[in-house]
Amino acid sequence: MSDQPITYASAGVDVHAGDRAVELMKDSVRRAQRPEVLGGLGGFAGMFDASALQGMRRPVLATSTDGVGTKVAIAQAMDKHDTIGQDLVGMVVDDIVVSGAEPLFMTDYIACGRVVPERIAAIVSGIARGCELAGVALVGGETAEHPGLLGEDEYDVAGAATGVVEHDLILGPHRVERGDVVMALPSSGLHSNGYSLVRRVMAAAGWDWDRHVDELGRTLGEECLEPTRIYSRPLLELARADVGLHALSHVTGGGLAANLARVLPAGSLATVERVWTPPAIFSLVQELGRVPRADLEQTLNMGVGFVAVVAPDGVARAQEILAGHGLEAWVVGAVGDPATAEQHDEPVVQGAKGVDGGAVQMLGDYPA
């Protein structure tokens, strides 16, 4: 039996620090709103006025949840926490956009070993910034202090979002046709996948995160913390335009080929030419770790954050729309007949993440 009374605070949970964190994040959350949001910060549940859905013919809700993986370890090592939230938003809302749905609202969850109000507020500021970029309302969240489970300076983040799309406007394999063109949209860097590989390579090379790398033009840590690009606004405009957009693929874990295969119909093959030069961070990881190209491509995005499958006569207009958002999209291939795979001595990727979809074959070499 303890000689002293045991309180929640002595067990390692500081309720008052949590309250201070909420006060510090209020301004950030206030900027990440939409007119449909009801109530304010601090309620038991976020509320969103869905009356606008009454004007839709057959509204279909789309939902997604995700985290940012071991990228948080780099944020913690550098003590820089104001960008990781944008990564979280990008990983969640852009999965929703793949179906053609407009993301509406999002909630977040932060688990930490110790609540440091300024650190939690910095994380949430990044989440709010991402929601602003995506046009999504941040309607609520939770910060949980887990002493003894996580170290004092450790944390992890997760989030979930909901969107809506008209049933007859859903994008996906049922729309894709042979002859469709595959377009690539540039990533802003590593995004939020493959950091276990990146961290292992850098540790083996003995490189610190504050090391300046000439090829990158900044420190290694700054490069690795570059926030995930958020594509929802430009892609929603693309989906609403008359460009023959048939499918979208978010290039996350598994790489370009595996994620593109998920949105192609069974019995189809998309060939993708390696016509672009991946940013320097990708070749750096490959060279330092002597990582085989196949392993690199199924782990990292290689400079392509999204893929659009478009009817041939809509490519020029699609590129024009995306350019208006600062995205230089380029043609990398087409959807064709699986029989053509026999003509190339390259592996064919299909059946990714349990989806019985199409197949993708990467061809050629990246330009130097």
Automatic annotation (TrEMBL):
Signal peptide positions on this chain: none
Pathway listed: Purine metabolism; IMP biosynthesis via de novo pathway; 5-amino-1-(5-phospho-D-ribosyl)imidazole from N(2)-formyl-N(1)-(5-phospho-D-ribosyl)glycinamide: step 2/2
Residues passing through the membrane, by range: none
Domain PurM-like N-terminal: 60-165
NAD is among the record's keywords: no
Protein name, as recorded: Phosphoribosylformylglycinamidine cyclo-ligase
Catalytic activity, reaction form: 2-formamido-N(1)-(5-O-phospho-beta-D-ribosyl)acetamidine + ATP = 5-amino-1-(5-phospho-beta-D-ribosyl)imidazole + ADP + phosphate + H(+)
Protein family: Belongs to the AIR synthase family.
Domain PurM-like C-terminal stretches: 178-337
